[in-house]
Design a protein that fits this description.
This protein is an alpha/beta fold. It is built from 12 helices and 5 strands. The protein has a 5-stranded parallel beta sheet, sandwiched between helices. α4 links the parallel β2 and β3.
Length: 287
């Protein structure tokens, strides 16, 4: 079985170019139906591991999703959440900053949403918007956004050290043609037409600029504590398979254990359950 964690990780210190990564890659499987048993296996494992994390309350997990429009960020959130208990998992979407948020440093709005011990947080877009959109559309000068790579690395190091947080960052890599195909499908789907905006199409003019911005982020902020993974995402089912496998492998490496009971089990059993069992036995004898 391929190890997608090793295959798709951006090793710290490397200098990658996205043109060298095939967004159409789909591994050994040829269809969603073919891959479904493996996908379901990882979803079930995610559910068990997240329950263990919630019970132990020593680790936390932050999943960061980035990609161009229609890359599948919402789809990944739905997929991951099917394997998570909502009691211990939250999805956060970072949209255009509010006036209050703009009055603070760019990480101010992000920090409160980091996962508490025992929980999982999914960022659908994230603090990385502040080195993507602002750069491509020249919303702030280069001498401002260029310093944010180091500030992001410091922020991620802080939460991994202080809160025992594992960070997994996924760049959903699709082709320009696949994006247009997905936009076209929205036109014919009444349930998704609300997603269509003129700006989505206009952003395609900046494809090259976004590609350069993504490459800089992948090269400058993939660290041992918070690695990036480039996920081929032209096939939605393979995207879900690869991401769920990586999440499961990382959660397994946490070596989590259920906490020991805080009560005397023998006494609880004697005081409540044995008495109830005796009462049932007595009722049967009277019949």
């Amino acid at each position: 079985m391929p190890n997608y964690l090793k295959k798709f990780i951006v090793e710290p210190g490397t200098n990658i170019r996205l043109k060298h990564f095939d967004p159409d890659y789909h591994g050994k499987h040829e269809s969603h139906q073919d891959a479904l048993p493996e996908i379901q296996k990882y979803v079930e494992k995610m559910a068990r591991l997240q329950y263990l994390m919630y019970a132990e309350r020593k680790h936390s997990l932050l999943i960061v999703l980035q990609g161009l429009d229609a890359a599948g960020k919402d789809g990944v959130v739905r997929h991951v959440l099917t394997g998570m208990n909502p009691a211990g998992c939250v999805a956060v979407g970072f949209k255009q900053p509010t006036p209050e948020e703009l009055a603070h440093d760019f990480l101010w709005r992000v920090h409160p949403h980091g996962p508490a011990k025992g929980s999982v947080a999914i960022f659908n877009r994230s603090h990385y918007e502040d080195v993507f959109v602002v750069r491509v559309h020249e919303l702030v000068p280069e001498n401002v956004w260029s310093k944010r790579y180091d500030e992001i690395n410091d922020f991620e190091t802080l939460i991994t050290k202080q809160n025992n947080t594992t960070i997994l960052k996924f760049f959903l890599h699709i082709s320009k043609q696949e994006q247009l195909t997905r936009f076209a499908k929205r036109l014919d789907d009444p349930e998704r037409q609300w997603k269509i905006s003129d700006s989505d199409y206009k952003e395609r003019d900046y494809w090259g600029n976004y590609t350069e911005a993504f490459e800089d982020v992948l090269n400058k902020t993939s660290t041992e504590r918070a690695p990036w993974f480039i996920i081929p995402s032209n096939h939605k089912w393979f995207r879900d398979l690869a991401i769920s496998q990586i999440i499961v492998r990382q959660m397994e490496d946490m070596n989590m254990q259920f906490p020991k009971p805080t009560v005397n089990l023998a006494e609880i059993r004697r005081q409540y359950h044995q008495a109830a069992d005796q009462e049932k036995s007595d009722r049967r004898k009277k019949r």
